[in-house]
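Narrative summary of target 7.
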Amino acid sequence: MEKLHNPVLLSEVLAGLRPQPGESYLDLTAGYGGHASEILGVTQNYKGSVLVDRDEFATEYLKNAFPSETTIINTDFYSAVLRLFECGKTFDIILADFGVSSPQLDMEERGFSFKYDSPLDMRMDQKQQKTAADIVNKYSERELVHIFTTYGEEPVGRSKMLARTIVHHRPINTTKELADLIKARSRYSKIHPATKVFQAIRIVVNGELEQIEKTLPFLPKLLNNNGRLGLITFHSLEDRLAKNFLKECTNHGEESELEIINKKPIVAGSVELVINPRARSAKLRLATKRH
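Modeled conformation, tokenized:
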């Protein structure tokens, strides 16, 4: 299978989730099958496994890449979790990689990256109506300030300045226009000064944090006893949700649903960072379902 996406922390995921022949697997953010191909390569249980992604480009790829008996669902992971819970499904292994896939970033027309001069889109699910252009061109200055401070974790003063600048220069039609506007009003930094603003807009376009927050409580219910759960996050907002969720699930002594495998999140090693720089902010948290 040709790899369109280098999965982050692959060896750490395999070591932590310990797939065994015959085990069932749920991948809530399967993308282009990077983690799934390795895990299912061990379990060989395609019929008992489910791969989910809200991006129809990804699910079409998965349908061609995996055996036909594999269940592939094109929807957001919260909707998928609800459906699976209502059907009484459970799994031995569950993985959720909350990052944006490389193909999404690298497909110029998707409008996720400021490397290209693309329409302001950023939709993971292209069937939805709201795009990044709607936020940039229609939201009030106050709403933009809230988005940049809350989801981009930008300082309030900088958020106000950027929001005012954006409102003044509307309409803004492309990623390059927006990135150049931000860069022109920023000091030099090692990362592109538009990085946090683009993250904030993308999070709002896709309702990413709300999705995670609503999904996490269902995951222990979808795990078999001794089942393993892996959560990969890419920024502090996601990781805080994952950390607090696991803490809540393991804080009740013998009544706890889960047991944390690694107290500190696992991060990429130096070798992986050379091969896959996008892994630099990835954190893996692992837990297992108690008897």
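The CA atoms of residues 96 and 231 lie 5 Å apart.
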